[in-house]
Amino acid sequence: MRGLVLAALVLAALGITSATAQVAPGVNTAAIAAERPPELLSAYHFFRDAGARTPNERVTPYDLNTPLYSDGALKFRYVYVPPGTQAQYRDEGVFEFPVGTVLIKTFAFAADMRQPTENVRFLETRLLIRRAEGWVAYPYVWNEAQTEARLSPIGANIPVNFTNEQGQAIALDWAVPNRNQCKGCHDLAGNLTPIGPSARNLNRTFDYPFPNIPDNQIDFWAAYGLMDGGAGGDAPTVPNAFDPASGSLELRARAYLDVNCAHCHNPQGPAHTSGLDLRWSQHEPIAWGVGKRPVAAGRGSAGFEFAIDPGHPERSILLYRMRSTDPGVMMPETGRQLVDNRGTALIEEWIAHMDAEGRVSE
Amino acid sequence: MRLIAAAAIAAIVITGAAEAKTWRIRPGADAEQRLQTALIEARPGDTVQLGRGRIELTGGLSLDVDRVTIRGDGAERSILSFNGQRRGAEGLLITSDNVLLRDFAVENARGDAIKARDCNGITIRGVRVEWTRGPNAENGAYGLYPVNCDNVLIERSIARGASDAGIYVGQSRNIIVRENLAEFNVAGIEIENSFNADVFENVATHNTGGILVFDLPGLPQQGGHDIRVFNNRIVDNNTPNFAPAGNIVAGVPTGTGVLIMANSNVHVFENEIADNGTVNVLISAYRESFQDAHYNPLARDIVIRDNAFGNTGYAPAGDLAALSQLGVPMPDVLWDGATVYSQGGTPRTGLVRMVVNDNRSTRTGVGSFLSLGMAVAGSPLTEAQPDPTPPPLVAIAEPERVRIRD
Question: What is the dihedral of CA B87, B92, B95, B99, to 10 degrees?
């Protein structure tokens, strides 16, 4: 199934369509530019089918080295860059995307997450659209029949049942964020901004199904004109937080914190007043929380003295808050209701192996 | 000609008024969704009017539109109830400029009650924030919580039950806090890492500590300065400290009237400060180790004058209890005496000026003073060398009155 989708996509990205294939209309640029967004996701023509499984021409899928945890939801990500325009490559931060760019992300659960390609139910598709005045965010919520997704700017709650990777039955109310909650994460100095598509997080292979196509995402984007500049071999990269072969414990832990926390915990983000800076580019352990006392944690401190107490995960506030599901305590504040057991295990191991200065020698 | 101009101005005003919309939110089915929708779709100039009664919320509310008013029918009549809150780190979050909140209540938020972050212009008037079960470590941290804001006005409001501070202004600039009631919190009113604040005509009672002026290291804004605390009633703050350990206020001794920690140019005058079991006024350096190269942990340029002190020192708590047991009588004004501090092992000193003058006391006639003579910030109390000699009188210019800019 995935291979077929990808085949269609790659053909589409290359502008190749077979003579016998039904020619679908291209992406609806008028809908993207419209002041009032369309009520239905299908109006954009990002996908060839009503169920949004098969991307249209120039709608390119991508993955991230280490993604944000969202209760374990599957995420299907695509980027659309308008014809005749290109993103600008940069080493640090999110690429500079041209006006008319759309980042498309669908959240989904498989009925049984041990078989993640079967019985996949889409919950919502979020669009981040680059306008001349900046980015705007629109969430579209899928119907039960999975035939249409409707704009829901004030968010929504969707009851979800699935079996998780450990075989446990999980029931939760999936919270589609409202416009303000979108900004709660996608906020840089007061402006809505994307989080994921940076060089270091895109610098990885993607399972493009043809032999003559670059399998590094940055190389692919550059080769097919989505982006000006950039080469996978020269670009920075972050490890996959959960693949020990991809980097040291410290680097994997910091990659996890960068993606899951640094969108708020950076000097220009919503949590800048905490003084905690969890960006990949921050190299001072005190800024990660090592030996740092809480400021406004309230009962989030759990009675512990430091955000990170080196060697002592059991009395580190950062880990305590990652393990909580109490809205007055938990971190991140939004975007999850479950605990990321893989993430907490990684951070626990990292703190346990820290020396007094907050470093892990390997 | 002038008439025409006047007419034109009137037309503009009327047009502006005609465009503003009032969103009326009555309690009842879907009230949460209607309210959050209004807060998202409101345009600058609009009012969101809360009806009488309780609106039950399951998630945190947020407003990100400039020049919006949220108002209710009174702090006892229009209630946002977070008893069933399952999501959101605060009850109500404001992230836009020139917002006015008035005449409603926020009850039992799971985290902070009302947080205003990165705002220029936030006015909170006649609002009540409360945890209705009374003091409890499980209550949210802050009641009214502007942080990194400019032009903050909090007046005629009530804060009860916060497990940190009832009214907390952090890392902000240009602040007025007046005519409020803060009770049954750990800290009644706390001004932290902030510049230019006037705190006056408030009542702080039944807290662990009445009014706190703090400066902490390692934050984007530090070096708090120019704070005036005057004409307040700071009485009977003896609620046992119920802050979760680890938080800085967990170290506030039960029974503290005013606590100044670090900061420069803090003037405390013409207050009634009485019946605080440990001490009426405590002045201290920041006592923990720190790595912030720009931080000065000393309390300096502090003026305590013309206050009316009542009973104190009859139930000293925390470390100060031990001091009292050594036979050191608790004064009205207690200073740790710190004038030197260590920064990454390097000793540093700063000019520390202190004026304690013209205070009255119902106990001793003249308000009493004691320095613990612990010259190095953070010294253990075992090194105290108590000295009741008041510091020499010097002139320390009072900060100018704070004016809120529109």
Answer: 160
Instruction: For B197-214, write each residue's pLDDT tens digit.
Output: 999 999 999 999 999 999
Range of the domain at B198: 111-383
**Which residues lie across from A127 on neighbouring strands?**
A104, A138
For residue A272, which residues of chain B lie inside 8 Å, CB to CB?
148, 220
Residues 272-291 of B with CB under 8 A from A: 288, 291
User: What is the C-alpha separation between B216 and B194, in angstroms, rounded?
Assistant: 10
For residue A3, pLDDT over 60 is answered with: no
B44 in a domain, yes or no? no
Q: Which helix (H) or strand (E) holds B33?
A: helix B31-41
Banded pLDDT at B406 (limits 50, 70, 90): low
**Whole-prediction pTM value?**
0.90
* Prediction ipTM score: 0.85
For B78, left (φ over 0), alpha (ψ -120 to 50), or beta?
A: beta
Averaged pLDDT for residues B57-74: 97
Domains held by chain B: number = 1
> CB neighbours (10 Å) of residue B300?
22
Distance CA A319, CA A341 (A): 11
Residue bearing the bigger pLDDT, B4 or B392 = B392
CATH number reported for the structural domain that contains residue B293 in this entry: 2.160.20
Q: Is B294 on the interface with A (CB under 8 A)?
A: no
Element (H or E) spanning A29, and its range?
helix A29-33
